[in-house]
Every structure is written in C-alpha cells, then in structure tokens.
C-alpha cells in the first residue's frame, strides 16, 4: 500500500510540475509561422527555428499563421485557442503588421492609428489578465533596396504604433524592424538574397519557376532573425531570459 501511495505521489508531483511549466506563445504572420515540409522547403518562419536558441525548460507554441493580421487572427478564433491556455508565468510574443496593410482585403486591413492600435492593446490587456507577460515586436523588414542600394521601408506607420503602445502601456518590446534593417544593410543588396527566397527555375527542387521573394525567409534568414530576437529578449529581464541559451 505504501508503495502504491509513493508511486501516486510521484505521478501527481510530475503532473503538477508539467502543469506549471511556462509556455512561450507566438502570435503573428507568415514571417514567424511554421512551414510545411521543413526538410525540403527552403522557406522557414523565424518562430519555427526559435527552439534552437531556447532551453527545454519552456514549451514553445507557435500559433503564427500565413496571411493573418491583428484583426483576422482574432476573428478566426486563433487568439481564443491561445487565451484559453494562458496562465501565470507564460509569455506571448505579439508581431503583426504585414497583413494589416492589405487595403484590398477587408478581413485583414486595419487602420494603424485606430483598429491596429486597439487590437494590440487588447492582446496586451488580455494576456496580462491571465497573469502572462506580453512582448510586442515590430514587423521584420522587407528586403527592398532601391537602385542606389538604399533599403526602403514598406511598413509605413505600423511599426511606429507598436512602439507607441509598448511605451504607453509599459510593455516589453523588441524592435525587430530596426534589427532586421541592420541585418539587411550589413548583408547588402546581393548577399541579403540568401536571407530570403531567391532561386532560378530548377535551382531548387521545391520551386518549378523562378522565385524572388523578399518578404519571407530562408532557413539562414530565419535562424539569423531568431538569433537577433533572442539576443534582445535576453536583455529585457522579463523572466524569459532564463530560458534563452
């Protein structure tokens, strides 16, 4: 009987420990999301490779999804799945903006100074209400060099609004736009192609035709961006740093 009670005690303790294990939730768009066929697919989201830079002491759930904005991520019920799981000690990285810009899609577009800002504030408030820690990030930059080799911004006011919300609400913040701008500029117009998806027809078996995608990331690009993110996250002192290698 004592042996049975001991075994039950160990099982309950193990279960309790597992329940208390912190989770890092990622919500965002295709630049962060997991891609199909990772062994063959050249495209990777930076959240897909984030685990390489984290310890096993925290669980990572990447809920980022291609084509989603701060609006559609909620209206499709994707945030509900995250919010229901949130508990004290968890973390939520929030990174939207790319698809909020889509003027021709009413299911995704948000005005940066009204709807977009309100959506970010709501994500922050609802995360905090569960005792979890929100972390805001600006969108990663696009590889958009002009003929003079100058990197041109494509995100207009969206990153500015993220900065304003982070400042006004005292939210942990990582300026991924700045970090990835520095990354692109350091690589230059030609070498930066390696960070993205540039292939001639037949060069990569995954693509039948020429590929020139300056928004999404190659595995090298994803790993570089994830490394930049974790380096900054480590300096925020939110508690997440203890899980970063």
TrEMBL record:
Organism: Chryseobacterium formosense
InterPro entries with a match to the protein in the record: RhgT-like (IPR037459), SGNH_hydro (IPR013830), SGNH_hydro_sf (IPR036514)
SUPFAM superfamilies to which the protein is assigned, alphabetical: SGNH hydrolase (SSF52266)
Origin: domain of life: Bacteria
Annotated ranges, domain SGNH hydrolase-type esterase: 26-222
GO MF annotation: an example: hydrolase activity, acting on ester bonds
Coiled-coil residue spans: none
Gene3D superfamilies reported for this sequence: SGNH hydrolase (3.40.50.1110)
Signal peptide: 1-18
Pfam families named in the record: Lipase_GDSL_2
Regions crossing the membrane: none
The entry's keywords: Hydrolase, Signal
Phylogenetic placement of the source organism: Bacteria, Pseudomonadati, Bacteroidota, Flavobacteriia, Flavobacteriales
Family membership: Belongs to the 'GDSL' lipolytic enzyme family.
Protein name: Rhamnogalacturonan acetylesterase
């Amino acid at each position: 009987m004592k042996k049975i009670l001991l075994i039950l005690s160990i099982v309950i303790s193990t279960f309790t420990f597992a329940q208390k294990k912190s989770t890092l939730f990622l919500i965002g768009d295709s630049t962060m999301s997991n891609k199909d066929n990772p062994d063959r697919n050249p495209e990777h989201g930076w959240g897909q490779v984030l685990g390489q830079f984290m310890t096993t002491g925290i669980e990572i759930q990447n809920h980022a999804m291609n084509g989603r904005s701060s609006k559609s991520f909620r209206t499709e019920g994707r945030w509900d799945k995250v919010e229901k799981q949130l508990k004290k000690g968890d973390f939520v990285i929030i990174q939207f903006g790319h698809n909020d810009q889509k003027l021709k899609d009413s299911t995704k577009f948000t005005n940066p100074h009204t709807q977009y800002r309100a959506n970010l504030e709501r994500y922050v408030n609802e995360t905090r209400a569960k005792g979890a820690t929100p972390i805001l990030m600006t969108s990663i930059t696009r590889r958009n060099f002009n003929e003079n080799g100058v990197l041109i911004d494509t995100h207009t006011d969206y990153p500015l609004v993220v900065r304003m919300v982070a400042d006004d609400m005292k939210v942990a913040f990582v300026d991924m736009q700045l970090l990835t701008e520095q990354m692109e500029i350091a690589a230059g117009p030609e070498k930066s192609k390696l960070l993205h998806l540039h292939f001639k027809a037949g060069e990569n078996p995954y693509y039948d035709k020429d590929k020139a995608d300056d928004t999404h990331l190659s595995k090298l690009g994803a790993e570089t961006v994830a490394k930049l993110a974790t380096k900054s996250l480590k300096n925020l002192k939110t508690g997440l740093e203890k899980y970063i290698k």
